[in-house]
Amino acid sequence: MGVNLMDSVDSKPEDVLTASSIEVTPRRTSRKRPAHVGVAIYQWVILVAVLLFLFIPLLGMVFFSVRFPLTGAWSGGAWQSIFSLSGTTASGADMSILWDGVLNSLGLSVFTVVLMLALLLPTMLALKIRPSKLSRVVEFICLLPLAIPAIVLVVGLGPIYRFISINLLNTHPIWLAFAYTILALPFAYRALDAGFSTIPVKTLVEAARSLGAPWLTVMFKVIIPNLRGAIGAASFITISVVLGEFTIASLLNRNNLQVAIFQLGQDDSMTATALALLTMVFGIVVLMTLEIVSYELKKKREKNAK
Question: How far apart are CA 12 and CA 301, in angstroms?
């Protein structure tokens, strides 16, 4: 709708400005809407594609665990044998190997987390206080397991574990924690390094030491409380690595959760599939819990900073 020239001459400048602003505003909003809608549609398409990619295989595992592949009959015996904690599966397979593998994996998770934190925390703290050329060397060593396949690690670790089993310790699966610490080093190192980069480590240590605090007090009452989120992330990732590891335990003839699932699958594939599905769901829950805890801790720190 146009404005008459004579009317604009007689009118006040404020009126002319108001009229022009009324005409310009709708044009700006109309230009932004299509781009905004396009971005929203693109995001939803990507989200749905990722969810389908993740959940369709899980859905297939659910169907396989409740439907006999030969007869097509439906049965919940596989899930019932798991949650009833019975000694045998629906097909009569022995479940004792599974519970033994679960206990071994839980013990390995705790031992590996403690060993990993005891190894990395003091080392990274020393490197953050006094940076040197060793920082690059330590980072390279911690990230090196990503480039070495598990089968190659077993070839190198086999003679070492043979010597340990005969001369020092025994053949209990708990000693796999040494190998699992090596596997978890790259992920734990990155998580802890991100945590160290968010706090003034040198300032905190110098302040605590100037007040007379010993090094153990500095570690447990100054550094660790400020790294709760990073330590939690490193611990959760380490637990996921331990619960999902199969190659090293199998080739070294040790029993853990994944080896037990594999051996159980030789006699009852439906129960083994149900157990594998539960393990993956547990990993997803752990990662989601990690994300929620990290978000809450970040939100709390921002609130305290204000």
Answer: 54
